[in-house]
Amino acid sequence: MAKHSNLKEKFIHGLFLFNGLLVVIVLAGIFVLLVSKSAPAFKEIPLWGFLFKSTWNPTATFVSPTYGMGSMLVSTFMVSIGALAIAVPLGIGTAAYLSDIASPRVREIAKPVIEILAGIPSVVIGFLGIVLVGPVISKIFRLSSGLNALNGSILLAVMALPTIISLTEDALKSVPLSFKEASLALGATHWQTIVKVKIPAAASGIVAACMLGMGRAIGETMTVLMATGCSIAMPKGFLSSVQTITSTIAIELGEVPYNTTHYYALFAIGLVLFIITFIVNMISDIVLHKYQKVVK
Amino acid sequence: MRKIICLITMSAILLLGANIAMAKSDMVEIKGSDTLINVVQKLAETYMSGHPGSRISVTGGGSGTGIAALINKRCDIANSSRGIKSKEVEDANTQGVNPKRVVVAIDGLSIITNAKNPIDRLTVDEIGKIYRGDVKNWKDLGGSDTPINLYGRQSNSGTYDFMKEVVMKGEYSPNMKSMNGNAQIVEAVKQDLGGIGYVGVGYVKDAAGITVMQVASDPTLGYFSPLNPMDVKSGKYPITRPLNQYLNGDPKGAVKDFLVFELSKEGQDIVESEGFFAIPHEYHKYNNSTLGRTGEPEAKDTKYSVEGRDGA
Amino acid sequence: MIKKKQFTQILGFSILRACTLLVMLTLVVILYDIISKGIGVINWKFLTTMPTDGMTKGGILPAIIGTFLVTVITALLAIPMGMGCAIYLNEYAKDGMITRIIRMSIRNLSGVPSIVYGLFGVILFVQLMNIGTCILAAGLTLGLMTLPWTITASEEALKNVPNSYREGALALGATKWQTIKTNVLPYAVPGMLTGTILGLSRAAGETAPILFTGAAFYLPYIPKSLFDQFMALPYHLYIMSTQHHSITKVRPIAYGTALVLIALVFMMNLFATILRYKLRKVKTE
User: Fold this and answer.
1) Considering Cα of C280, then C282, then C283, then C285, what sign does the dihedral take?
2) Which of A85, B96, C63, C265 could join C231 in a cystine, given CB atoms 3.0 to 4.6 angstroms apart?
3) Minimal-distance CA residue of chain B relative to C132
4) Distance CA A122, CA A119 (A)
5) Which of these, B121, B171, B123, lies nearest to B150 by C-alpha position?
6) What is the CA radius of gyration of chain C?
7) How far apart are CA A83 and CA A92, in angstroms?
8) Separation between Cα atoms, residue C123 and residue A30, nearest integer Å
9) Treating both helix axes as pointing N-terminal to C-terminal, what angle do B34-50 and B253-263 enclose, rounded to 10 degrees?
10) Nearest C-alpha of chain A: how many angstroms from B85?
11) Which chains have 3 or more CB–CB distances shorter than 8 Å to chain A?
12) Are C15 and C26 in contact (CB under 8 A)?
């Protein structure tokens, strides 16, 4: 009787272990599939040129097709860094306000507001980029169209803000009370405490939050697809129309005939995107863990 | 509790099985060209209201997407605003697909600029230079000192291909903004004083705020407008093209019935109401051979011939 | 006379207050624009009829149903797999290499871009498993994407079950699985569902994973089988605002779709929040 249930227990344990491992399998599976579908591309495209040449023209017929990610990489980083430039100061400021200064009533209102903001689908934000932000940008800068990198950065900032705010708030809350009390006891004002004691103490958590926000921005598809104007040339500035890695995949995957160089090349840029976000997330992880060790 | 779960799962599986058997039997799936999408959708809607029980789904994605779907056996009809490429025919054959073509409408590819732009005519050569990026400012063409802003489609578009192969004979300037569809191009050019775009003629019939360029292949022979049916059907307008539908093998059953409707007088009336042009006699004969029909077609205009220009 | 220190503080606080206000204002602007321009289109007909006249008139019923069906499939994949993984991590796993790797994988999966999930879904479900572009393929793809959410939410819920519950059962001679089944899960499941609903509300709003796994521009019918293509709210919004042949004419419909979409996401969030609140009340009693 005991043996029978022992076997059953072991079986169930194994089942759950398998379930746990499935997660690893999925992640590994994504990587392996991307690699297997990109590898054939590199038989024809030299890696250096692929990453750094700026012309992406896989359907060229009058010249030979070129598969250069350069402009795409620059565009992707441009909109992401632009987004961070807006979201990081705003996010840290808001988090500092909410964690240290705001009254409980304000916090009660702000928390759901930020959660709702986080839940707005990316396609809705992209839609607003077309109908709301675009016309404003074109009016302010006297441009013909407001679909450019700046538009994308603003929208991505809106999407990254909730992540940055909540994680920074967590980081600030984790700063031991003793830090704050010591600072105030030494005669510092509340403001000075926040700026010179709490934020530096929470620095790693804040950096991790920003990196996660950046990861979100880099990986976002619909928002940039709808709002950045889709021009494959190397951007000349934030008012140029750009095309990111994600936009390119979204635009071209539907039409490309299976198992052609163009097809493999799209998976190759997907692989590059995967690796970039993987690295960003790993850095954020490492920073966060270092931070947690320090605080403990 | 467990018994209930088992029961639900069983019935779900049974329902699924029944559904799979019934689901795809009589539906016609059409995918592809954005240029064609609203006219084919209109045709599908009219057909379905006249033939209850028929099911036709129309999705976009561009001509390239449609042909790719046909090759991958994921649709019945591929809408294409360009001809199928030889590479695509090869791919199709290796997949066991035999592409057959039917022409459903004639398009005069229209070049549009902002209504406030004083220039109202261009040669094919000039259009090519503009889109290749060789000419960057309207003043080089006799207009005002405004930089030219290029709007075009994406590489999945048959119109994109057609422009490249037939008009530009070269690669697009990387500064072109790739829009997702014809309508987006029209909207963009409406707001952009320096803008220029290319769209199917069905998209310009009511459009205010834009000027449809008159085009000449040879200036001495005159400039012609795609809004003039005579010029399009007689071939005087230099950038006309047939709008195609590709099928796998000889059309049968529901697919054939729909094609017959599209090519009937009622279908061609719908084509013209959407701003495109009915197919002329020569294409009717060609279509009939694909459809396996004989006898005189119900063609509207039997006098004009059009030199079809395929992108391939 | 205000000292410099106090002046800096007042200034600093004002800046922080302004940041917060700006962030909250962003949501207000977003909601105001969509609600004001979308509400005019919403009526019973809009929500329950098919689109007509080349989608320039009529309703968005197929998109609503499509989103619903896909979300059901997403839930069917993400909930069991998520719960199972969380049970393993919280109840069975010991600190070790395997556990660390699993946790690292979960964190990384949550950071994978949605379009990469779409690529994966196209290869695995549409091509390799040959189920084609359909509700099932799209639902499975979204299910994988929602996994990190359900795992994290389930783990939280499991952690909240006091250890005494487990110890009590074990003391009475129950096996590990029996303990989990009778003394842990019933208390954890409500919390698991709360987090899962939030994850599902995200999945319902995603476009990139369904772009190539089944979403369609126009279908004249409601999908009858899991192997049919489908229309979906987020994809509908995308094509109404970019690909449609009369985008200015259908702009109101686009706004209406956006409003329905955020209303749906909002309602799911609200439901989860109320559930969470009710659970907290139960716990403290």
Assistant:
1) positive
2) C63
3) B74
4) 9
5) B171
6) 23
7) 14
8) 10
9) 100
10) 11
11) B, C
12) no
B-contacting chains (≥3 CB pairs under 8 Å) = A, C
Query: What's the length of chain B?
Result: 312
How many CA atoms lie within 13 Å of C24's alpha carbon, on the beta-carbon side?
19
Is the Cβ–Cβ distance between B45 and C220 less than 8 Å? yes
- Report the residue of chain C nearest A18, measured CA to CA: C85
Is the confidence at residue A225, as pLDDT, over 60? yes
Closest to B55 measured CA to CA, from A223, A146, C228, A218:
C228
Q: Which residues pair with B106 in a beta bridge?
A: B242, B277
* Tokens coding B137: 């400012």
> Residue B175: which of A138, A144, A231 has the nearest Cβ?
A231
Tell me the C-alpha to C-alpha distance, in Å, between residue A63 and each of A59, A60, A257, C62: 9, 6, 20, 44
Chain C residues bordering chain B (beta-carbon distance below 8 Å): 52-55, 132-133, 216-221, 224-229, 239, 242-248
Half-sphere exposure of C27 (CA within 13 A, CB side): 20
How far A59 CA sits from the closest chain C CA (Å)? 20
**3-class DSSP state for residue C107?**
helix
| Residue for token pair 């928002």 | A223
- Per the CB < 8 Å rule, is A212 touching C111? yes
pLDDT in tens, A26-49: 999 999 999 999 999 888 888 888
Give the pair of three-digit tokens for residue B266: 């009622």
CA-wise closest residue to C139 among C209, C197, C192, C86:
C209
Nearest to B27 by CA among B43, B2, B8, B44: B44
For B10-53, list the strands marked E by DSSP: 27-32
If we measure between CA atoms, which residue out of C196, C164, C169 comes closest to residue C180?
C169
- Residue from A235, A237, A79 nearest A159 by CA: A79
Tokens of A15: 């089942």
SS3 B96: coil
| Closest C-alpha to B117, from B152, B143, B140, B141 | B143
The mean pLDDT of A2-21, rounded to a whole number, is 83
pLDDT cut 90: percent of chain B above it:
27
For residue A10, give every residue at least 6 positions away whose Cβ sits within 8 Å of its Cβ, in sequence order, or none.
Answer: none
| Residue A33 contacts residue A48 (beta carbons within 8 Å) | no
- Going by pLDDT thresholds of 50, 70 and 90, the confidence category of residue C284 is low
Across C110-120, b (16+ Cβ under 10 Å) vs e yields: bbbbbbbbbbb
What pLDDT, in 10s, does the model give residues A80-106? 999 999 999 999 999 999 988 888 898
With CA atoms as reference, report the closest residue to C101 among A213, A36, A22, A34.
Answer: A22
Q: Which residues touch C199 (CB under 8 Å, ≥6 apart)?
A: C78, C146, C149, C150, C153
Q: What's CA A78's distance to the chain center, in Å?
A: 13
Check: CB of residue A252 under 8 Å from CB of residue A270.
no
H/E element, B104:
strand B99-108
The beta-carbon neighbor of B183 closest among C132, C216, C246 is C246
- Taking 70 as the threshold, does the pLDDT of residue B24 lie above it? no
Q: Give the model's confidence band at B222: pLDDT under 50 very low, under 70 low, under 90 confident, else very high.
A: confident
Residue labelled with tokens 């487990």: C166
Distance from the Cα of residue B178 to its chain's centroid: 17
Sign (positive/negative) of CA torsion B246, B247, B248, B249? negative
Q: Does residue B128 contact residue B302 with C-beta atoms inside 8 Å?
A: no
Pairing of the two strands B195-199 and B210-212? unpaired
Distance from chain centroid for Cα A224: 12
Show the tokens assigned to C186: 């019933």
Task: Write down the pLDDT at residue B134.
Answer: 92
At B192 the three-state DSSP class reads coil
Total residue length of chain A: 296
Interior/surface letters A90-107, b for 16+ CB within 10 angstroms, e for the rest: bbbbbbbbbbbbbeeeee
